[in-house]
């Protein structure tokens, strides 16, 4: 059953406001689109609408954190990661302030809003910043767990979410911690490390591969920074072939991070499934995933290639 990222996000933030009396929420003219109006109604003195001024929003959040508040920035991925990058670097990452950034509408799943709104570079941008943790949630249960884990952590963190609906993968008691990942399928022939909405596609691919006699490990690699290094190393030694899958550019995101790590620790073939160094366009999520190579069939093809490259 598919459920809404946004509905779960707001419910979780509302619940968290009861636990953290210093929690405040900031948005840049996106309260209605993100369904933040419920939070405004419940806590009118803890919601800050900053207008279409993302740089000011990040600077304000930094000041709030320095004064002891717990600021949570919520907005479209493109406009809370890439537009205010200088402020994220100088005002949040450099002084290592306790600011949380929750980014919705990431990747091609933004659909008809088109290339200007499809953040395909945000994980690459955010994981380049010292002190920032970078996460991606695959479904609503993981969204709730991720927000709760972020709020417990003292320091900057970035959470990447899809636009709206995601298939249920986890139950209500989902674990989530920095440097974590989940082993969803066991297989000895190839490892598929996926994050976000591509976890569903990775599971479908693993089922198809099993029919061909290829047994795939499937990892939900929700912690992109820090990586689950021990688990990645273990699986590289066991399967000796990797596929990464993400709704993001193949440059600098999960695939880039996995390649960087394994090239220095256990070099194995790695085939990256993602957007191939280009911008997106308008269309439905399904249409765009098919055109840009983000389906289970594309993961199956990548896994075959990775297995064929094993020494």
From TrEMBL:
Q: Does the keyword Transmembrane helix apply?
A: yes
The record lists the membrane-crossing segments as: 57-80
The cofactors named for this UniProt entry are: thiamine diphosphate
**Which SUPFAM superfamilies does the record associate with it?**
Thiamin diphosphate-binding fold (THDP-binding) (SSF52518), TK C-terminal domain-like (SSF52922)
Keyword annotations from UniProtKB, A to Z:
Membrane, Thiamine pyrophosphate, Transferase, Transmembrane, Transmembrane helix
State if Transmembrane is listed as a keyword: yes
Residues in Transketolase-like pyrimidine-binding domain copies? 3-169
InterPro entries, per database record: PDH/Transketolase (IPR051157), THDP-binding (IPR029061), Transketo_C/PFOR_II (IPR009014), Transketolase-like_Pyr-bd (IPR005475), Transketolase_BS (IPR020826), Transketolase_C (IPR033248)
Do you know which Pfam families this protein is assigned to? Transket_pyr (PF02779), Transketolase_C (PF02780)
Extract the GO molecular function terms from the UniProt entry. Answer: transferase activity
What CDD domains does its record include?
TPP_PYR_DXS_TK_like
| Similarity field | Belongs to the transketolase family.
Q: Which PANTHER family match?
A: PYRUVATE DEHYDROGENASE E1 COMPONENT, TRANSKETOLASE-LIKE PYRIMIDINE-BINDING DOMAIN-CONTAINING PROTEIN
Protein name according to UniProt: Transketolase, C-terminal domain protein
Q: Which organism is it from?
A: [Clostridium] hylemonae DSM 15053
């Amino acid at each position: 059953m598919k459920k809404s990222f946004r509905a779960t996000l707001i419910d979780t933030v509302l619940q968290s406001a009861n636990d953290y009396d210093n929690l405040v929420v900031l948005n840049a003219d996106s309260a209605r689109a993100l369904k933040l109006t419920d939070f405004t109604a419940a806590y009118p003195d803890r919601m800050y609408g900053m207008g279409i001024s993302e740089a000011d929003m990040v600077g304000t959040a930094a000041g709030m954190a320095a004064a002891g508040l717990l600021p949570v920035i919520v907005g479209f991925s493109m406009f809370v990661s890439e537009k205010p990058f200088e402020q994220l670097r100088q005002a949040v990452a450099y002084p290592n302030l306790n600011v949380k950034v929750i980014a919705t509408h990431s990747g091609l799943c933004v659909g008809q809003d088109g290339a200007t709104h499809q953040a395909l570079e945000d994980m690459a941008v955010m994981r380049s910043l010292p002190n920032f943790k970078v996460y991606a949630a695959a479904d609503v249960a993981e969204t709730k767990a991720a927000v709760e884990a972020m709020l417990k952590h003292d320091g900057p963190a970035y959470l990447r979410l899809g636009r709206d609906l995601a298939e249920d993968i986890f139950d209500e008691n989902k674990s989530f911690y920095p440097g974590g990942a989940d082993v969803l399928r066991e297989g000895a022939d190839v490892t598929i490390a996926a994050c976000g909405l591509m976890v569903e596609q990775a599971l479908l691919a693993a089922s198809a591969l099993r029919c061909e006699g290829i047994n795939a490990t499937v990892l939900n690699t929700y912690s992109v920074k820090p990586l689950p290094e021990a688990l990645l190393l273990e699986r590289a030694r066991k399967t000796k072939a990797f596929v990464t899958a993400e709704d993001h550019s193949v440059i600098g995101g999960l695939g880039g991070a996995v390649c960087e790590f394994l090239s220095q620790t256990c070099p194995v073939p790695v085939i990256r499934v993602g957007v191939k160094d280009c911008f997106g366009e308008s269309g439905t999520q399904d249409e765009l995933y098919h055109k840009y190579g983000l389906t289970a069939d594309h993961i199956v093809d990548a896994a075959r290639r990775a297995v064929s490259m094993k020494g």
